[in-house]
Amino acid sequence: MPTRGRSRSGSGPRAEPPRADDGTGDGAPSGRIARVTLDEHTVLRRNPDVEHERAVALFDLVEENRFRLVDGPDGPYHLHLAIAESRLRLLVRDERDEPLVDILVPLLPFRRIVRDYFLICESYYAAIRRSSPSQIEAIDMGRRALHDEGSTLLRERLADRVAIDHGTARRLFTLVCVLHIRG
């Protein structure tokens, strides 16, 4: 379970400026998202499973993330996600809510992954209600593999503008999927 109220700053003054790598050795950025909002015009609350995934992704993303603009300040950032004209829109603002950058990512490369992810999620939720643990585990492995594929693609598509770690990409991909659910 994520720990709330963790300190992000080290003790004492630093002799050198902060690095993009936070010292974990994984090359992850040191910036962070402090607040996330979704374009409520595109979000349709369909069922409790989707709402649960959305709420967990939003909570986990704010609690633990590594997100840094390649050519911009270190954050913290306010991130607004929307789908506009077949593109993912990431509006990044500073902590005073002043716009920093508006990033548009074409969604066509995500179409197959999102469609397959929705199908396997339906199977997964149905299996939870009536299948054996081994069947649920097999479906969940496929679900996680598709989720990783979507997360990796998202990271690649954002790489020239935003540096994010794998966990942050996974949570953002979940929100991209939620934004695809329309009325």
Low-confidence stretches: 1-29
The tally of strands reads 6
Identify the overall geometry: elongated
Strand content: 15-25%
Total DSSP helices: 4
How large, in whole angstroms, is the Cα Rg? 17 Å
- Give the total of domains: 1
What do these coordinates show?
The chain is of the alpha+beta class and 183 residues long. It has one domain. Helix content is 42%, strand content 19%. The protein has 4 helices and 6 strands. A 4-stranded mixed beta sheet has the order 1-3-4-5, with helices on one face. A hairpin with a 5-residue loop joins strand 4 and strand 5. Helix 2 runs antiparallel to helix 3 and helix 3 crosses helix 4. The longest helix is centred in the C-terminal third of the chain and has 26 residues. It starts with 32 loop residues before the first strand and ends with a helix. 23% of the residues are buried. The N terminus is likely disordered.
Task: Describe, in short, the structure shown.
The protein contains four helices and six strands. It is of the alpha+beta class.
Tag the structure with descriptive keywords:
single chain; 183 residues; alpha+beta; two-stranded antiparallel sheet; 4 helices; disordered N terminus
Element layout with pairings:
Blueprint: E1 33-38, H1 48-63, E2 67-69, E3 77-84, E4 87-93, E5 99-106, H2 111-130, H3 133-158, E6 162-164, H4 166-180
Parallel strand pairs: 1-3
Antiparallel strand pairs: 2-6, 3-4, 4-5
